[in-house]
Amino acid sequence: MNGVNKVILLGNLGADPDFRETDTTSVLTWNLACTETWLDARKQRQERTEWVRVVAFGRRAEGLSRVLRKGDRIFVEGSLRTTRHERNGETAYTTAVIASNVVLSGGARRPSDEEPRERVPDRTYHRDTQPPAAPPAAPDHTGTRAESEARVPAVPPTRRDLPDIPF
In what ranges is there compositional bias, type Basic and acidic residues (predicted)? Predict the structure, then answer.
Protein backbone atom coordinates (compact mmCIF):
# COMPACT_ATOMS: atom_id res chain seq x y z
CA MET A 1 0.00 0.00 0.00
CA ASN A 2 1.28 3.47 -0.90
CA GLY A 3 1.64 6.23 1.68
CA VAL A 4 -0.01 9.64 1.53
CA ASN A 5 2.00 12.86 1.28
CA LYS A 6 -0.58 15.67 1.09
CA VAL A 7 -0.46 19.15 2.58
CA ILE A 8 -3.29 21.70 2.61
CA LEU A 9 -2.52 25.24 3.80
CA LEU A 10 -4.34 28.57 4.04
CA GLY A 11 -2.29 31.59 4.98
CA ASN A 12 -0.72 34.91 4.07
CA LEU A 13 2.52 35.61 2.21
CA GLY A 14 5.09 37.06 4.62
CA ALA A 15 7.08 38.75 1.82
CA ASP A 16 7.10 39.02 -1.96
CA PRO A 17 7.97 35.62 -3.48
CA ASP A 18 11.46 34.94 -4.86
CA PHE A 19 11.41 34.05 -8.58
CA ARG A 20 14.45 32.63 -10.38
CA GLU A 21 15.12 30.66 -13.52
CA THR A 22 17.52 27.74 -13.69
CA ASP A 23 18.90 26.01 -16.76
CA THR A 24 15.97 23.63 -16.83
CA THR A 25 12.96 25.32 -15.15
CA SER A 26 11.52 28.33 -13.32
CA VAL A 27 11.34 28.30 -9.51
CA LEU A 28 9.15 30.45 -7.24
CA THR A 29 9.71 30.28 -3.48
CA TRP A 30 7.74 31.99 -0.72
CA ASN A 31 7.04 31.78 3.01
CA LEU A 32 3.43 31.33 4.06
CA ALA A 33 2.23 32.41 7.52
CA CYS A 34 -0.45 30.00 8.74
CA THR A 35 -2.02 31.29 11.93
CA GLU A 36 -4.22 29.20 14.18
CA THR A 37 -6.25 30.54 17.10
CA TRP A 38 -7.92 28.79 20.03
CA LEU A 39 -9.32 29.43 23.48
CA ASP A 40 -7.23 28.19 26.38
CA ALA A 41 -8.57 26.74 29.65
CA ARG A 42 -9.18 30.29 31.01
CA LYS A 43 -11.15 31.18 27.84
CA GLN A 44 -8.32 33.49 26.71
CA ARG A 45 -7.75 33.68 22.96
CA GLN A 46 -4.38 32.22 22.00
CA GLU A 47 -2.62 32.45 18.65
CA ARG A 48 0.30 30.67 17.02
CA THR A 49 1.80 31.27 13.58
CA GLU A 50 3.69 28.59 11.66
CA TRP A 51 5.91 29.76 8.79
CA VAL A 52 5.93 27.26 5.94
CA ARG A 53 8.27 27.37 2.95
CA VAL A 54 6.43 26.74 -0.35
CA VAL A 55 7.98 26.11 -3.78
CA ALA A 56 6.38 26.08 -7.25
CA PHE A 57 8.08 25.05 -10.49
CA GLY A 58 7.70 25.61 -14.24
CA ARG A 59 4.75 27.43 -15.76
CA ARG A 60 2.98 27.52 -12.41
CA ALA A 61 5.95 29.43 -10.96
CA GLU A 62 5.95 31.88 -13.87
CA GLY A 63 2.22 32.59 -13.59
CA LEU A 64 2.22 32.93 -9.83
CA SER A 65 5.26 35.25 -9.90
CA ARG A 66 3.14 37.79 -11.78
CA VAL A 67 0.29 37.85 -9.24
CA LEU A 68 1.54 36.93 -5.75
CA ARG A 69 2.61 39.75 -3.42
CA LYS A 70 3.32 40.20 0.29
CA GLY A 71 0.14 39.94 2.36
CA ASP A 72 -1.86 37.92 -0.19
CA ARG A 73 -4.10 35.25 1.33
CA ILE A 74 -3.71 32.00 -0.57
CA PHE A 75 -4.77 28.37 -0.40
CA VAL A 76 -2.03 25.84 -1.23
CA GLU A 77 -2.22 22.10 -1.88
CA GLY A 78 0.96 20.12 -2.29
CA SER A 79 3.34 17.58 -0.82
CA LEU A 80 6.26 17.73 1.60
CA ARG A 81 9.77 17.33 0.29
CA THR A 82 12.99 17.37 2.33
CA THR A 83 16.27 18.12 0.59
CA ARG A 84 19.82 17.65 1.85
CA HIS A 85 22.57 20.19 1.14
CA GLU A 86 25.91 21.39 2.48
CA ARG A 87 26.03 24.62 4.48
CA ASN A 88 29.31 25.85 5.94
CA GLY A 89 30.81 22.38 5.53
CA GLU A 90 27.96 20.69 7.42
CA THR A 91 25.02 18.72 6.14
CA ALA A 92 21.74 20.63 6.44
CA TYR A 93 18.16 19.65 5.63
CA THR A 94 15.35 21.85 4.35
CA THR A 95 11.69 20.85 4.27
CA ALA A 96 9.27 22.64 1.93
CA VAL A 97 5.83 22.16 0.45
CA ILE A 98 5.92 21.55 -3.31
CA ALA A 99 2.79 23.34 -4.58
CA SER A 100 0.53 21.42 -6.93
CA ASN A 101 -2.52 23.71 -6.58
CA VAL A 102 -2.60 27.39 -5.58
CA VAL A 103 -5.73 29.52 -5.23
CA LEU A 104 -5.66 33.26 -4.58
CA SER A 105 -8.37 33.55 -1.94
CA GLY A 106 -8.36 37.32 -1.36
CA GLY A 107 -8.39 39.13 1.96
CA ALA A 108 -5.52 40.38 4.13
CA ARG A 109 -4.07 43.13 1.93
CA ARG A 110 -5.77 46.54 1.80
CA PRO A 111 -6.27 48.23 -1.59
CA SER A 112 -4.05 51.14 -0.50
CA ASP A 113 -1.16 48.66 -0.06
CA GLU A 114 -1.39 47.42 -3.65
CA GLU A 115 1.03 48.47 -6.29
CA PRO A 116 -0.13 48.37 -9.91
CA ARG A 117 0.26 44.89 -11.35
CA GLU A 118 -1.50 42.20 -13.28
CA ARG A 119 -4.09 40.70 -10.95
CA VAL A 120 -6.59 37.92 -11.55
CA PRO A 121 -8.62 37.41 -8.35
CA ASP A 122 -9.60 33.90 -7.31
CA ARG A 123 -7.63 32.33 -10.17
CA THR A 124 -6.58 28.72 -9.73
CA TYR A 125 -3.23 27.45 -11.00
CA HIS A 126 -3.41 23.66 -10.92
CA ARG A 127 -1.13 20.95 -12.24
CA ASP A 128 -3.99 19.28 -14.13
CA THR A 129 -5.59 22.43 -15.56
CA GLN A 130 -6.44 22.13 -19.23
CA PRO A 131 -6.55 25.11 -21.60
CA PRO A 132 -10.01 26.67 -21.99
CA ALA A 133 -12.29 24.87 -24.41
CA ALA A 134 -13.11 26.47 -27.74
CA PRO A 135 -16.22 28.70 -27.61
CA PRO A 136 -19.44 26.98 -28.60
CA ALA A 137 -20.37 27.07 -32.26
CA ALA A 138 -22.90 29.64 -33.42
CA PRO A 139 -26.47 28.34 -33.31
CA ASP A 140 -27.75 26.70 -36.47
CA HIS A 141 -30.95 28.45 -37.53
CA THR A 142 -31.61 26.28 -40.58
CA GLY A 143 -34.13 23.46 -40.87
CA THR A 144 -37.68 22.97 -39.64
CA ARG A 145 -39.05 23.88 -36.23
CA ALA A 146 -39.16 20.20 -35.22
CA GLU A 147 -35.46 19.81 -36.08
CA SER A 148 -34.68 22.97 -34.11
CA GLU A 149 -36.59 21.72 -31.05
CA ALA A 150 -34.78 18.38 -31.27
CA ARG A 151 -31.45 20.23 -30.89
CA VAL A 152 -32.56 21.95 -27.66
CA PRO A 153 -31.02 20.15 -24.65
CA ALA A 154 -33.36 18.52 -22.16
CA VAL A 155 -34.20 20.55 -19.07
CA PRO A 156 -32.36 19.19 -16.01
CA PRO A 157 -34.62 17.68 -13.35
CA THR A 158 -35.73 19.88 -10.47
CA ARG A 159 -35.55 18.74 -6.85
CA ARG A 160 -39.19 17.69 -7.03
CA ASP A 161 -38.41 15.36 -9.96
CA LEU A 162 -35.71 13.51 -8.05
CA PRO A 163 -36.59 10.40 -6.01
CA ASP A 164 -36.71 10.71 -2.25
CA ILE A 165 -33.56 9.01 -0.96
CA PRO A 166 -33.53 8.60 2.84
CA PHE A 167 -29.98 9.36 4.00
Answer: 110-129, 158-167
